[in-house]
Amino acid sequence: MFDLFLTAAYAPFTVAFFVMIGIGLIEAIGLGLGSLDLDGHVEIGHAEAPDVLGWLGFGRGLPILIWLTSLLGCFTIAGVALQQLAGPFHWGIAVAIALPVALVANAFAAGGLARVMPSYETTVIGVEDLLMQRGTVLEGTAGRGRPARAKVIDQHGQAHYVMVEPHDDHTTVAQGESALLVRRDGRTFYVVPDTDPTLRPI
């Protein structure tokens, strides 16, 4: 029976199934982790979708990976059902029939997922927005020329992980200590130890 899914007629749906599993694993592993694009910006959640994409279920509060996983699942089910009940057709014909069916089915599936999942808000921040925020060194001791990994909570409560060095040559920031991000050079943020009570994040 499994050999059937390795034939050309079922190949697109078999591939879609394994891609769906892969994306699901990535989503599960990365659940709850913040992300930072040091060369651009951070985007969390979703943006408002155009009418057509909104009708297809995109932009209803679902992260794009979950929406895509749902679409791949609908495409796999529609394709296998088509080939089992009315086929087998040539894979190209089967894809042409299964894809619009999957898009319509996913519009309902995405709506259901959006109702049961926690809501997500659209938040876009630039890298510079992390300046004047506090970070906590996670491992090692940060010194000049010896950056250490730190965790920064932005103004929206999202966690980001950056490399930090002290702003002053003779200062260090040990593991577990917090510091204020005061400037950035490339991928490295420079910090002032959080020992001055007059220092406050913006």
Automatic annotation (TrEMBL):
Inner membrane protein YqiJ N-terminal domain segment(s): 12-104
Coiled coil region boundaries: none
Domain Inner membrane protein YqiJ OB-fold positions: 133-192
Leader sequence residues: none
Domain of life: Bacteria
Keywords, ordered alphabetically: Membrane, Transmembrane, Transmembrane helix
InterPro entries: YqiJ_N, YqiJ_OB
Residues spanning the membrane: 6-26, 64-83, 89-109
Protein name, entry field: DUF1449 family protein
